[in-house]
Amino acid sequence: MHPSSCDTFVALPPSTEKQCIIFGKNSDRPCDEVQEVVYFADRDFEAGEKVECTYIEIDQVAHTYAVVLSKPAWLWGAEMGSNEHQVCIGNEAVWGRESADGDEALLGMDLVRLGLERADTAEKAVDVITELLEKYGQGGSCMEDEGSFTYHNSFLISDRKEAWLLETSGKHWAAEKVKGGYRNISNKYSIKTKIDKEHPELRKYAQSKGWWDGKTQFNFSTVYSFTTTARIEAAGSRYCEGKKLLKKSNGHITAETMMDILRDKDSGINMEGMFMTTGSMVSVIPTDPTLPGVHYLTATPDPERSVFKPFIFVKNINATNALKETTSPSYGADDPVKKKPRFQSKPDRKHELFVKHELVAAIMESFKDRGKKITENMRKLEKEKMAEMEEILSHGIEEPDFLVNLFSNCVLEEMTVYGKS
């Protein structure tokens, strides 16, 4: 298996319809991995408290924001998600001249969750992630497997007014601000000469390694990328195809446009095989701060065979029971990830929706006519929900308590569709 990874997209006015920002990501992971969708409420903490991430423990902050996350069930962090302030983050695996084979530290997915829990704007998320990177570093296997699969990370981060692209190499990094139009990232460095923030030693370090002569214009992706590009060739292809698909709808990009892009198999964006798309997310964030953001998440593999289900941050969401149909079993201290040596066994991490989706996917594969009918019914449900959300995106929320179980209720409706198959 040659590991591949994800594609992340953002579109801002004037590339979108109406005054909103559209964020989207496919999480491409090992095909046998379960991705769960979970909610954590905002919390206050005492001074000196710690938080246990996937591999290491770090200092906790005084307050964390409420978050909805799409995450591999075995680890603490997340592939993508949003917080109550409508900050959205997705990460990508990137490889370059700097070795990624370091000690266990923070995973890029841990940094996604930490950025969402601690930042109320996209720019603050850049600061949070880079400060944590400097203090704790990044490293550790990114697969639930004894074989080491390691990488550096890039992040696409958006809020109500702008987006930021953050690319890292070890503890070094560069960030670019995106004020309008569209942007996508894959598994390759793409920040060139427009750098709006950077590690203070970024250029000096590159010069000391002989990667940059200190005289020619500094181009981050040229300086820090592999000298040979064989490993990132597929990512380059997906990146170009994703850019073309965004350009095709420029000025008219909607949530539906983004879902279509994430479902596109010809481009390789909707990945199949040993590495496949195991979870997808599309967020619609109005620039008007009085209007809610709507976050659509699948919690199931292959967006072509999944329903994008809406989630809205409202008060009174019960953190204990929220999203229980897409929350995987917890094994606590007995989890093989927590015991050293790690990954000596793999427990069953399938959540309720995953189990039912797996059965239906098998039916769809074996019986084409039945599969077509199931897909039609799934799309019908999705369109109904999106129509309801358009009303909320345009006029706001009248009865917040009606939306407390929005996502879970849609999951139940999705499972009803499966039951009719």
From TrEMBL:
UniProt keyword list: Coiled coil
Protein name: Secernin-3
Species the sequence originates in: Eleginops maclovinus
Signal peptide: none
Superkingdom in the source lineage: Eukaryota
GO biological process, one term: proteolysis
Family: Belongs to the peptidase C69 family. Secernin subfamily.
Coiled coil ranges: 364-391
Pfam families linked: Peptidase_C69 (PF03577)
Chain spans, region Disordered: 327-347
Higher taxonomy: Eukaryota, Metazoa, Chordata, Craniata, Vertebrata
UniProt GO MF annotations: cysteine-type exopeptidase activity; dipeptidase activity
Listed InterPro entries: Peptidase_C69
